[in-house]
Structure formats: C-alpha cells, structure tokens
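User: My collaborator and I are trying to settle a disagreement about how two of our proteins should look. Neither of us wants to argue from intuition anymore, so we agreed to look at predicted structures for both before our next call. Could you fold the first one, then the second, and keep them clearly separated?

Assistant: That sounds like a sensible way to settle it. I'll keep them separate. The first protein:
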Amino acid sequence: MTAEFEQSEHAGPQPQNGPEQQSIEQAVVAAMGGLSIDELLAQVTNHPQRDGAGSLDPSRPVRGGRPKAASANDPETLQSPEPREQAESPEWGRIKHGKVVAIQKDGVFVDLGGKSQGIVPLEQFRPADPDIPQTPVAPGQEYDFVYAGYDEREGLVLLSRPGAVNHGGWEQLHEGDVVQAQVTGANKGGLEVKVNNIRAFMPAGQVDVKFTADLNSLAGQKITCRIMQVDRGSKRLIVSRRVIREEEIAQLREKTWSRLATGQILQGVVSSVQPYGAFVDIGGVEGLLHVSAMSYTRVTDPGKIVKPGDTIQVMVLAIDQEKQRVSLGLKQLQEDPWARAIDAFPIGSAVRGKVTRLMDFGAFVELAPGVEGLIHVSEVANKRVGHPKEVLEIGQEVVAKVLAVEPARQRISLSIAQQQRQAAAPPAGGPTPPPVGPKPVAAQKRPLKGGL
C-alpha cells in the first residue's frame, strides 16, 4: 500500500509514558472537556455524529456472521453491544475483495462472498483533491478493501479503501509518523483536521510553540504535524504541530550557534518589545537589542523604534556561549554623527541647540540628532547660579559658544556666558567704549566762601 504522508526520520518505538506524552494527554483532556472526539468535532462541523462506518438501515436484513478470525469463545467481545475493531485479530489489515451491493446514506455495503458482508464509509470513495474527477460508486462495482474490524451488533465487517491516502486507512497511521493534515475547522479547544481523509483533533496548545489567538486563521491550510495518539477502537486520532515546530527551531538554533560571530550583520524578526529593549529572533536564537544600542539619539520608548513582527538588520555585538546570550546593535549600522562633530561644530563658533536635561552640574543641549553638548553650571549665565534650572528650562533654545570638542569621548563643552559676553563686545576697529568706573567729579566754578 502507498501513503502520501511522510514517515518519521527516526525509527524505533516512541515513548508512551514520558513527560511529552503526559503533557499531550492533559491537553487533550482539558480541550475535550469530557466529550468524545465525535461530540467535540460535531461542534465544529455541525453535521450529525457518525461512527465512520455510516448509518445503518434498521430495515436491512443482516447477512453473515462473525468472521473466522474473531474467536467465538471471547466473552468480552460477544457480550459487547458496541462495534469493536479488533486490532489483535490476525485479519487486521488484510486485503478483502468484494462487490458493492448497496449504497445507503454515508455507507457502502459490500458482499465479501459466502455469508460475510462489510461496510465502507462513502467518503473513502471521494478523491481528496477536488480537481480530480470523481467516479461515482455504484452497485456491481468490485474493489479491494482492507479489513479494519467487526461490528458485533450489526454483524458487519468494517472495511476501508487501501492504497491512496485520500481513501484513508487507520492501518496506515502510527504514533510518531509525520503527516500532512488539512485544517477543516476550529473551536475553543483546538483544530479539526483531516489526515488521509480521517478526522483528527489538534489541541489548541499543540498548534504552535506560541499562543495562537485566532485558530480560525488556519482554516483551509495544509500543515505538517506529528501523530501523537492513535486509538483505532474509539476512532481517536490526536496530532501535534507544536512538536514539529520545536524540532525545526532546535535544528535551526544549533545551526545558528555554530556560525555566530561578533561583528556579523544578520537579519532578524522582532519577537517582543520591553521597556529596556527588544528581543530579536536571528534564526532560532533570540538576541537582546538593548535600548542604548537602538539609536544615537536618546530612546525613551523602544516601541517607537521597533515593533513585534518587524524584520530588521542588526549587528552582533557580543556572544556568551555559556549563558546562551547574544547582544545586538541597531545604531551600529547607521552613520555615527560624532564622526563629523569637529567639522560641524568648530571650536569658538556659536551654535544653537535645545536644552534636553538639567543636572546639578550643568545642562545638556542637543546640537544635532545624537550629539549633545554640556554647559557647565558656571557657564550658564554671567552671574553666580546655584542650579541651571534657575535660568534654563527643558526644551528652551539657547545659543552657546563651543569651548572644546572630543569626538572619541563624545563630549562637547559649551558656554552661554562667554557667548553673551562675546556678543556684547564691540566689533574690532570700532569706537573705543567709555571706561568702566566712577564718573569724574566736575570742577567748581564758584569761589569758595571763607578763607584762611
């Protein structure tokens, strides 16, 4: 038999009672809320529940009896009023040839010869691909079928179509297999999917490594997932997309760490924004873009620079293999405004800027994006000032004289006092200003009275 789903690359039995299996079981129980798989999926598709073998017509005479493979001495089986699929039977998975004798509702009745009659879900005769022309099934047509169990109550052999995955086949599904699934619906508990045309359930916690707020956004998509549970008896199939994503991320992370180096320029996706910076996924590895490395200008809100989902280029600044930490930079890919500070702000020139901060020791003035100068408290005015806030306020525009420029230390010294004195001084070659000091006493014109 052929199968259009991928087999797991890792052979060998899958662990049944490990932490991952327990986590899956807990997620399934919570998502199903005490309902059976058919009851839960009926909430999504809004169609009548069915057991996969189609509804039986009570008026149809029952033909045949229990196949030879079913032991007549099994009291548990004989007393059970419910249909039971016998995975332990040697008949399981064997090919049976039969002729279609009737089609009723969702079931196709097949004559297997002798006194044995079987039933096949009608949907297994429909191609999974809507582009493939459908050949309607009709009485008299003969097919090969796969033995899938026995309905004790109705006396019918449960059959499935072999071969192509669009016909489905529980015998083809095993825990640990990687398969392609078609999302057909969603509810608050998870996703309804179809694997090989067999209905399956994916708990919401197994959809992705991160919380998926809108499960309906996946409707109609084909996704790769891993089979976590197969219960042929109760027609229960549980799949997980999360484990596939975790495996892919682990492989990508290992590859990224092996080639990571300081100074690299990488493309990443912003995964979250925090008050102190942003985390950027650079290939399975999340690096921290600190707020101080975002821009040469002072950043108070990282959310104004980047947002979750943004694709950006960053530079690797530091790597800590032991702690699995990576520091990233964004402003390092921009032109450093201090590189041209000497040419832009010559010593002795008058510059205009805006006051950004007031400290006890002075005031900071922004001269250009990313470039600030400091006016010492002794240089803010031509008088003694105890604190810059006595004569300045944040946001005020000022004109100051450049005293010193140190690009390597990113420092510029400014003075408002010297600029004011220079502006008040007469230009060179102008009239001599009057002397500064007390006025001379005028000579007395009237003679003094009295004498010696």
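The second protein, kept apart from the first:
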Amino acid sequence: MQSAQPIIVRVVEEPLRTTNVADVLIGALGLAGVMTLSALLLGLTLGGLLIAWKRLRARYNLEPDEDAHAMRVTPSSSTP
C-alpha cells in the first residue's frame, strides 16, 4: 500500500553571515551606550526622588527632632 516513489526532503540551510571585528566593536559600544544611558536615567530619577522627598519633609515640617536619637554620654565623676 505504500507508494513506490521515495519522499525526498531537501534541507536548505541559510547562508552563514560572517562576523568581523567591526561588528563586534559596534555591538559592544551599543551595549555600553545602552547601559550608560540607563544608569544615567536611573541615577537622575532616584536623585530627583530624594530631593523631592527632602523638600516635602521640610515643607510640612516632618524633620525628626535632632536630639531624638542623640545619646548623651558624659563622663561620670566616680570617687574612689
């Protein structure tokens, strides 16, 4: 019941693109640029948030009492 003609499958591979030094350098510089830009944006965002937080605390007088966490350690005068 099988057909007498065999099934022939031809696998066509895509041509390989060669990678040269210029491709590697462009890729590395692109990655370094993306990382630098993202670090800069993240730093500016967090810095802006910290400045805004400090200004809000100062505006609404939410600064903690300066002496609240200070430990007052004085030398004791012990007599022998």
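Some points you might bring to the call about the second protein. The mean pLDDT is 84. The helical segments are 21-59.
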